[in-house]
């Protein structure tokens, strides 16, 4: 299937930035550009742009595209979706920045979006991965970390039970890079909300996002340097899972961040993981990984 795509160009420089990537998706047969709409500041007297038909607003928004790609700073995408909600569904509006994702393939990306995957992560990997893919957070484990590997394994192994418990304030923590932050307690599990200013804020976000969990498609990810923790997680977690390790532990479902493959050899395991999750270092094809394709490792 070739998807019918329209491009809403609000920032021409962003369109030019991803011009070649868009052309590549066309060459692969993944998309066809059926129309382009320009910001009024980019008005031109011609009828086409780079061979794509220029449409006025009425023509563009009534065309019936499968997807509309918006060339605008990503921080404005939510505002654009709100403005166009009566015309096109939120999930049909995409940031042009998706064309900058490493190993990007439009069909595989749409498959991932449609799967509504919920990533349960023991640390910031999940949130950073969602953000790098320009996807909605369909998990409560965002911008936080679990106090121990064992607590995370217990959490994902009994997920539906733990989702019934209220999140309660436990105490404050402190980190040099963020200062004071809240620590929450979910029955017998401590969760450090490292990137939240207050517990109330953390609790609100936790409850909103836990209601988005898609129990039919969960991926659980543990980052650990402990062989015992890795084995326990793989053995006890019933969902599709991956263990991110600094070396080969000889177990299934592992992703090895070999230090010889990290550009900055002095980087810690945790910092290396954040760079990979943020799309700054290439170790694996994250779209394939989340889609369950076993060929995700480069």
In short:
The protein has twelve helices and 14 strands.
General description of the model:
- The structure is a single chain.
- By secondary structure, the protein is of the alpha/beta class.
- The protein has 2 domains: 3-100, NAD(P)-binding Rossmann-like Domain (Rossmann fold); 113-291, no CATH class.
- Helix content is 32%, strand content 23%.
- It is built from 12 helices and 14 strands.
- The protein has helices at 12-17, 19-27, 57-61, 77-84, 106-115, 125-132, 149-157, 159-162, 199-210, 227-236, 269-277, 286-291, and strands at 3-9, 31-38, 48-49, 52-53, 67-71, 93-95, 118-121, 145-146, 168-175, 179-186, 189-192, 218-223, 240-245, 254-256.
- The mean pLDDT is 91.
The Rg value, from CA coordinates, equals 21 Å
Shape: globular
> What about the largest sheet?
4 strands, parallel
Strand order, biggest sheet? 2-1-5-6
Number of strands: 14
Please give the domain count: 2
**Run of helices and strands:** EHHEEEHEHEHEHEHHEEEHEHEEHH
The N- and C-terminal alpha carbons lie at a distance of 26 Å
Estimate the mean pLDDT confidence. Answer: 91
Contiguous low-pLDDT stretches (5 residues minimum) are none
Share of helical residues: 25-40%
Number of helices: 12
Binned strand content: 15-25%
SSE-based structural type: alpha/beta
Question: Could you name the key traits of this structure?
Answer:
14 strands, 298 residues, four-stranded parallel beta sheet, 32% helix
Topology diagram in text:
Blueprint: E1 3-9, H1 12-17, H2 19-27, E2 31-38, E3 48-49, E4 52-53, H3 57-61, E5 67-71, H4 77-84, E6 93-95, H5 106-115, E7 118-121, H6 125-132, E8 145-146, H7 149-157, H8 159-162, E9 168-175, E10 179-186, E11 189-192, H9 199-210, E12 218-223, H10 227-236, E13 240-245, E14 254-256, H11 269-277, H12 286-291
Helix pairs in contact: 7-10
């Amino acid at each position: 299937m070739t998807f019918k795509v329209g491009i809403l160009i609000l920032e021409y420089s962003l369109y030019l930035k991803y011009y070649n990537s868009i052309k590549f998706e066309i060459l692969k047969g993944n998309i066809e550009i059926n129309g382009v709409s320009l910001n009024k500041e980019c008005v031109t007297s011609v009828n086409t742009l780079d061979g794509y038909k220029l449409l006025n607003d009425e023509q563009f928004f009534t065309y019936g595209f499968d997807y509309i790609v918006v060339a605008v700073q990503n921080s404005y995408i939510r505002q654009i979706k709100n403005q166009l909600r009566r015309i096109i569904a939120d999930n049909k509006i995409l940031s042009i920045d998706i064309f900058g994702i490493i190993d990007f393939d439009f069909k595989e990306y749409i498959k991932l979006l449609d799967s509504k995957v919920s990533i349960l992560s023991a640390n910031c990997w999940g949130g950073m991965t969602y953000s790098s893919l320009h996807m909605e957070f369909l998990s409560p484990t965002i911008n936080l970390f679990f106090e121990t590997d064992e607590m995370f394994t217990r959490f994902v192994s009994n997920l539906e039970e733990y989702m019934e418990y209220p999140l309660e304030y436990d105490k404050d923590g402190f980190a040099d890079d963020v200062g004071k932050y809240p620590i929450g307690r979910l029955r017998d599990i401590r969760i450090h909300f490292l990137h939240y200013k207050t517990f109330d804020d953390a609790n609100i976000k936790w409850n909103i996002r836990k209601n988005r969990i898609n129990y039919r498609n969960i991926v659980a990810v543990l980052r650990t340097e402990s062989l015992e923790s890795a084995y326990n997680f793989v053995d006890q977690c019933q969902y599709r899972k991956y263990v991110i390790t600094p070396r080969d532990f000889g177990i299934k479902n592992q992703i090895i961040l070999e230090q010889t493959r990290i550009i900055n050899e002095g980087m810690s395991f945790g910092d290396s993981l954040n760079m990979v999750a943020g799309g700054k270092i290439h170790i694996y094809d994250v779209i394939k990984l989340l889609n369950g394709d076993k060929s995700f490792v480069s």
